[in-house]
Amino acid sequence: MKLLQYIFIIFFTVAIFLSACRQKETVSIEVPEPIKTSVTIVQPIQQSLTDYLQLNANTVFQKKVVVRANITGYIITMPWKVGDRIVSGTVFCTITTKEQDALKNLDQREPSLKQFQQPIKTITSATGFITVVNYIQGDFVNEGDILATITEPSSLVLSVNVPYEYNRYVYKGRTCEVQLPDGKRINATISTSIPVIEAISQTQQFFIHLPAIHQLPENMNLLVRIPMKQKLNAICLPLEAIQTNETQDDFWIMKLINDSLAVRVSVTVGSQNDSLKEIVSGIGLNDKIIVQGAYRLADSSLVRIEK
User: Does residue 30 fall inside a structural domain?
Assistant: First the structure.
């Protein structure tokens, strides 16, 4: 009898234990994945870089010819206006004098005086565009008055003032690159220098002749780049991969470690062109550098590489 009681108690205990196991719920804790910043990377490249002396220049027409009145009187005809193109030997205007007006009352009694009533012609001596007109038809002018100014387009040059400390780089016959406001670039040559130093700024004036196919307006501001020295096989990075402080005396990049960790590395920079900057020290050719997504990225940040 006691044996049956023991067996019953054992079965009852096992049944309760199995029931409790079936009712027990499995609780799982999900650990959130660390937040990673999406970035793109590049590797340094070796490339030759040229240091340029950059100077501001402006366009100037060296040859401007004035048209002067060759007699005192009234302008009878003058069909020209600003912007018109005129050729040397063309009649610019005609002028009649007070004496010729007085002869009109005598011409019926003396037909021989008609030959003296013809207006006097003023002839131009230059070919170009009329840029200034000082008088119009009907105005009274004195002999020698400037009627207009004609600018010869072929006389266009760039005027650039160069500090004398750069005289070993800037001289007659030196090739240079001229950058227009729209980004276009023109290869040119320094053609003339003025042997005078400006007293206050200590600069010397040079003129650069542009190829004839490039007709530019006067007083346009341009950038002239003159090569100074070249560095061969420099280790370079894209400009957007390099960060700096407000005073631009501290430079750094974000270097990728183990494909997921970005660390800040200080670098020393050198020459640069429009898209690349030389890295003198701080990285190697096999390093992976973040180029997009590095701005304001904290040191030792987790990142994800975007293809």
Answer: no
